[in-house]
Automatic annotation (TrEMBL):
GO biological process: protein K48-linked deubiquitination; proteolysis
One GO cellular component term noted in the UniProt record for this chain: nucleus
PANTHER family (alphabetical): UBIQUITIN THIOESTERASE OTUBAIN-LIKE, UBIQUITIN THIOLESTERASE PROTEIN OTUB
Entry keyword annotation includes Hydrolase: yes
EC class name: hydrolase
InterPro entries: OTU_dom, Papain-like_cys_pep_sf, Peptidase_C65_otubain, Peptidase_C65_otubain_sub1, Peptidase_C65_otubain_sub2
PROSITE patterns, sorted: OTU
Protein name stated in the entry: ubiquitinyl hydrolase 1
Molecular functions per Gene Ontology: cysteine-type deubiquitinase activity; ubiquitin binding
Length: 308
C-alpha cells in the first residue's frame, strides 16, 4: 500500500516505512481529518463514542462504560490539531464559570490579569501579547457583572451564553488568539519557575526536536519549541505549569486500548487492565493536577478531558 499523494511524505509500501516515516504519515492523515472538524463541537452523549468503538477494542469500550457508570454523560470534541489541550482546557473552564454567579468570572479574569506581567518580564512585548489577550479578556468581561455591579459588561447587555461561547471558540481568529495567550502564559510560568521545572527536562534529551550539543535541553529551548510554537501538543510539564499558574484543579481521564501498565515518558502511568473493578471491569485512569488548589476551594473544570 502506498500514499495516495505523490507529494506526501512517502510513496514507499507501508511495510517498508521507518518509524519516523510512519509517524509523519499518521500526522498528515490526522491533520487532513482534523481540518474538517469544528474547533469545538456540540455536547454529545458518551454513547456516541461507545458506538464508534463498539467493533474495536473491548478494553476501550469497557472504559467508556465505566465512565457512564461513574456518572459521566457527555463529551465535547475539539479539533485534533496539536492545540487541542489548550482549547479544551480554556473552553471547559469558561463553560464551568458560566454556570456560576458573574462575580466568579471577574475573579477568573483577575487571575489571568495577574499573570500578564510575567509575559513582559520574560521578554514578550506588550504590543504583541495585548492583541492576543484581548479576545479572552472580552469573553471574560461578557461573562462578568454589569458595570452598575462593578463589572465591565455594559448595562442591559445580556451575559454571554453557552451558545455564544461555542460560537466564539469556533471563530478561527478568536480561537487562535486565545490559544496563543495560553501558550505564552504557560511559557512565562515555566521560565520564571525554571528551578522547579528544569529537572524534568531530562526526559526530552532524546527528542529530536530538542537535541543540542551535549544532549542538554534548556528551559528556553523547550518553551520556544514545545510550548510557544502553535500546533505543539501539551505534555505533562506544560499542563502542570498552566494549571499551577491559574490555580485550577483539573482531572484528565486517559483512555487507551493497552492492557498492560503504560508509561508515556512524562511521569504519567495507567493500568487499563484492571484493579478495583468488580467482575473484571476496567478502571479509568484519572490524572490529577493542582489538587492543593482543589483542597483550598478553587473552582476547577467540572468534567474530564478525554484524551482519545
Amino acid at each position: 500500500m502506498q500514499s495516495s499523494d505523490p507529494t506526501g511524505p512517502t510513496t514507499k509500501p507501508l511495510n517498508e516505512l521507518t518509524d519516523l516515516e510512519r509517524a509523519d504519515l499518521a500526522a498528515q492523515l490526522r491533520d487532513e481529518q482534523s481540518r474538517r472538524a469544528p474547533l469545538v463541537g456540540q455536547l454529545e452523549p458518551l454513547d456516541n463514542l461507545r458506538e464508534e468503538y463498539s467493533q474495536g477494542s473491548s478494553v476501550f469500550v469497557d472504559k467508556i462504560d465505566r465512565l457512564v457508570q461513574d456518572g459521566w454523560t457527555g463529551i465535547r470534541r475539539t479539533r485534533g490539531d496539536g492545540d487541542c489541550f489548550y482549547r479544551a482546557f480554556i473552553f471547559s473552564l469558561l463553560e464551568t464559570y458560566l454556570a456560576l454567579h458573574p462575580s466568579h468570572s471577574t475573579y477568573l479574569s483577575d487571575k489571568f490579569s495577574s499573570l500578564l506581567p510575567l509575559l513582559t518580564a520574560c521578554g514578550f512585548e506588550p504590543i504583541v501579547w495585548e492583541d492576543f489577550w484581548e479576545p479572552l479578556r472580552d469573553l471574560l468581561c461578557k461573562m462578568g457583572p454589569e458595570e452598575k455591579d462593578g463589572g465591565k459588561r455594559k448595562q442591559g447587555e445580556a451575559r454571554l451564553s453557552r451558545e455564544g461561547l461555542l460560537a466564539a471558540f469556533n471563530d478561527q481568529e478568536t480561537n487562535s488568539c486565545i490559544i496563543v495567550i495560553l501558550r505564552l502564559i504557560t511559557s512565562a510560568y515555566l521560565r520564571t519557575h525554571e528551578d522547579e521545572f528544569s529537572p524534568f527536562l531530562f526526559a526530552l534529551e532524546d527528542d529530536p526536536r530538542f537535541m543540542q550539543e551535549g544532549g542538554v535541553v534548556s528551559m528556553r529551548d523547550f518553551c520556544e519549541r514545545g510550548v510557544e510554537a502553535v500546533s505543539q501538543e501539551a505534555d505533562h510539564l506544560a499542563i502542570t505549569a498552566l494549571t499551577r499558574a491559574l490555580h485550577v484543579p483539573l482531572r484528565i481521564a486517559y483512555l487507551d486500548q493497552s492492557v498492560l501498565p503504560y508509561h508515556d515518558g512524562g511521569g504519567l502511568s495507567s493500568d487499563p487492565a484492571g484493579g478495583g473493578g468488580g467482575g473484571g471491569a476496567v478502571e479509568v485512569n484519572f490524572v490529577e493536577f493542582e489538587e492543593e488548589a482543589a483542597r483550598k476551594g478553587e473552582k476547577g473544570i467540572e468534567g474530564a478531558l478525554l484524551y482519545l
